[in-house]
Amino acid sequence: MAKNATRTQTSRAASTPAAKRPTPLNPDATSERLVPETNWTRRHLLDVDDFTSAEIELVLDTTDAMKEVLARDIPRVPALRGTTIVTLFYEASTRTRASFELAGKVLGADVINVAASSSSVQKGEALLDTVRTIQAIGADVCVLRHHASGAPYIAARESEFRVINAGDGQHAHPTQALLDAYTLRSELGDIRGRKIVIVGDIAHSRVARSNMWCLTSLGAEVVLCGPPTLMPVGLNGSTSDAEEHDLPPVRVEYDLDIAIEGADAVMALRLQRERQSSGLLPSLREYSRLYQVNGERLAKAKPGAPVLHPGPINEGVEISTEVAHGARSLVEEQVTNGVAVRMAVLYLLLRGEQP
Ligand code: CP
After folding, report:
1. What percent helix, strand, coil does the chain show, rounded to 5?
2. How far apart (Å, rounded) are the C-alpha atoms in residues 352 and 196?
3. pLDDT by residue (tens digit) across 278-289?
4. Which protein residue has the closest C-alpha to ligand 1 atom 3?
5. How far apart are CA 10 and CA 230, in angstroms?
6. CATH classification of 174-330 is 3.30.2350.10, yes or no?
7. How far does the centroid of ligand 1 lie from the alpha carbon of residue 5, in Å?
8. How far, in Å, is the centroid of ligand 1 from the Cα of 33?
């Protein structure tokens, strides 16, 4: 875009409703405060790697309040009335996009969905131009999923609205980690000291990375398991390796039958074939033989240990059908909790006490 055009668009954007924040809310909306005053300080949700345990607990406690709203006969409140949320997705999504849309609507916000596949991105529009366009529309929040790691940081730097990272490349998926933590807390109680095994394609998984940060921050013992070719480079086994590679203190175990012993919970990951280069796996059959979470393996975890999967599932590959749909599966609870967690995040970003 030409420099002058950028200036014109930016100055126009400055006169949009978005520029009037931090008080973008309809005063009527304040009539229902869903949680007590908080000490929330964040303008954006880009990652959980720098979240304190208190911040995570605040999101999870706020989620409890949102669950109460969702349980009402008519689950609609005006808490975010007068605000506009834009979901901007450059990659496919079912759970994340739909749950953000519902979360916004339950809280009374207007929600606009933009899929790159059917937008002017197809005509060659650059990310920053799309971001400026969304700002000019008057968005208060942009929920952004992008195939490039770091894209939400650029959007946050270059715009007036708040940005929520809905998954960026192989980097982070913070709301997935928060909903996983919420689901685990609901099932296990305190997560501190619990052994949680994350198994599968760790190297390509933004879900794994965000969960490592979130769960270790809450005091869990996180064990990563998968083939060496699907482990982050240089992460060989000890927690000190992890720290050297800018990861939280996690342990690596390549043998799932050993890793799963005594686990309090098991999280299977999708094989992300779209992000893998060829030659990382001998065959899917071999992968399933060694790393599938199935009934026989689950018997080695603690009795009743739950199983999570962020979805979408390659059923019969990383998880067996009986486990995916069995009594110990929390897959549907994860999706359900995703709405409440995203309500909590939207609420805190727009109604918290941030600058
Ligand atoms: N877990 C997750 O991000 O699912 P979607 O790709 O369907 O949003």
Report:
1. 45, 15, 45
2. 31
3. 667 778 889 999
4. 96
5. 43
6. no
7. 36
8. 30
